[in-house]
Amino acid sequence: MENHKKRCEELVRQLNEASEAYYNGKEEIMSNYEWDAMFDELVSLENETGYILPDSPTQNTGIEENSGEREAHEFPALSLAKTKQISELQKWAEDKKVWLSWKLDGLTLVLTYDGGKLTKILTRGNGTTGTNITYLKNSIKGFPLKISYKGHMVVRGEATISYTDFELINDTIEDDDEKYANPRNLASGTLSLDDPEKVKERRVHFHAFTLVYLEEEIKSWGDRMDFLEKEGFTVIDREVLDAQSLPEGIDRWTRKVENGEMDIPVDGLVICFDDTEYAASGSVTGHHATKAGYAFKWQDVSAESELLYVEWSCAASTISPVAVFRPVSLEGTTVSRASLCNISEMERLGIGEKCTLEVIKANKIIPKCISVKNAEGTFQVPENCPVCGAQTQIHISPKSNTKTLHCTNPDCTAKHVKKFTRFVSKSGMDIDGLSIQTMLKFMNEGFLKEFADIYHLSEHAEVIMQMEGFGEKSCANMMRAIEKSRKVKPVNFIYALCIPMIGIDAGKKIIAKDGFDGFLERLEQRKGFEDIDGIGPEKSGSAMEWYENDQNQSSLKALLKEVTIEKAALPSDPAGKCAGLTFVITGEVHHYKNRDAFKAYVESAGGKVTGSVTSKTDYLVNNDAQSSSSKNRKARELGIPVITEDAFLEQFGEA
To answer: What is the pTM for the complete model shown?
Structure first.
């Protein structure tokens, strides 16, 4: 009995330490797989002994540490009971109608509305008090600032960051202490930032999962979600089922995750009763309400495989290890690679020169090595960067004592991946298929060292087609996009060069004054641009300093051999068809290449394009003219015509 108590105390300590890191955006101490196993062991011991510590995670929700103002929740944000057995869910559902939805892996937020306006945003905190982050209301997508309902309303939902944005953000963070372990970790860290603009850049999205309180009576959970959707909230995906149909529904939803259809991080499923009165009639046990809902967590399936070698790849300044092993079938897919994170994680696992790895797919998506056996020898840390060949250096974080490997070359191509991202962006060369992760792969293969190398990727097509994530079709699509980008507008080309302080607007001013040849002449003759209205000495000095760098000059000359610069569009016509008119363009366009091209035409015809509908707007252009979008609703309220692209062309198009 005494041994059991000591084990309980040790489990509580370890689980709480891991939870503290998990809920506060710190470096991950243990995987969900390890946490769940320890939690299950603790539950079993507590049931067996009756020995339950006050700070046991079975009795408390996770706690966020935040310097912001703490406030009490109007309605406690309790946890859900969890299970890995579908039969338990069926038993809980009884003969009632239930809703199946995702258990999103983010940060729970509670929103309060009064008088039709958002008045407060609290984090979940410990379930009874949270941190007030209302100052971030303009930085988070997925909820309206104003609604038509004028009564008191409380909404709970999950703030998440997609896997795509997580990888993009993490790959551009050079300081290892600032990197994040997973999207949930990033969302938590992001919402503790003081700078709303920085939060906005990270594309946090809110998904409402329950309407906690409404003065009007809506008893059906499904109707409540429909109500929120009509008010402009992003509402969690959902499906109505019963106990009998639950197994098939869960299997179907699980396959969506296994097939890679989910870019939003999820760590399970949730069922709740449609009858909200019945759901509210349960009691509170530990830290969850017995009828509020039930969370289903997937059983992690593991497989063992022989390590073939460790591949080291450079992103920003960090060189990260990836285990490459004999392919194994895992949850419906073939897996042959798993990130090992850093040197400290390799040491913790006991990676050897030869060893057997036990691998899972965390949340059914990300391959992760959880244990090692039969290790022989020790792993080797590379002495040279795989991208530039410069000497490497082991860095030990003063915060976490974590060992990571770095390239010592400040000019290493991988450290400038942000510039490549700008180069291929829509505002730049507009090349689809070259994500930051793809370009980092090519850098590590030695395919990319400067911008012009993008136009020689076809020379490596045979190798690229064999790379993970590629095939003949995706490779061909990428090559077509590259070839298409060889013809480029001068303003987009200038933006793509990544000249500090010279963006689209500055580029337009330069081209309007002298054209592209004049831009090159000013650089070559060191004339500067300060005499151009709207440029000034600071921007001009930045451009000239950029050009003084031999590497930038060489890169520009190499690029000009690969691309054709289109003739600059004529200056805005004060007597053009759009003269004196203000347009808002929304939704997909069909006639023009994209909305930027549409905007360029309007401006060349003397018109103006803005981003929001106001009383000064003359026309809203939307190919779905009958939609109930916020812009369409606003236009109708103000009596502003909503026209399709075809109608625009008929009235304002080129002759």
So the answer is: 0.58
Element (H, E) at 90: helix 86-93
Q: Which of 360, 386, 407 is the last residue of a domain?
A: 407
Digit-coded pLDDT (tens) for 35-86: 777 777 887 788 778 788 877 777 665 555 454 578 999 998 888 888 889 9
Strand partners, 295: 82, 270
Q: Is 640 helix (H, G, I), strand (E, B) or coil?
A: coil
CA distance 338 to 325: 8
- The C-alpha atoms of residue 602 and residue 230 are separated, in whole angstroms, by 33
Whether residues 503 and 528 share a domain: the answer is: yes
On whether both 427 and 477 belong to a single domain, the answer is yes
- Exactly one of 26, 82, 103, 508 is catalytic; which is it? 103
Place of tokens 């060893």: 355
Q: Specify which residues 325 forms β-bridges with.
A: 307
The sign of the torsion formed by the CA atoms of 524, 525, 526, 529 equals negative
Q: How many helices (H) and strands (E) does the chain have?
A: 21, 26
Active site residue 103: yes
Q: Mean pLDDT: which of 26-40, 384-398, 595-609 is highest?
A: 384-398
Give the residue carrying structure tokens 């009828």.
291
H/E run at residue 158: strand 153-160
DSSP letter at 141 equals B
* CB atoms inside a 10 Å sphere around CB 575: 8
252 membership: H or E segment, kind and range? helix 246-258
Co-location of 232 and 278 in the same domain: yes
Q: What are the C-alpha distances in Å from 489 to residues 516, 557, 576?
A: 9, 17, 21
User: Total domain count for the chain?
Assistant: 6
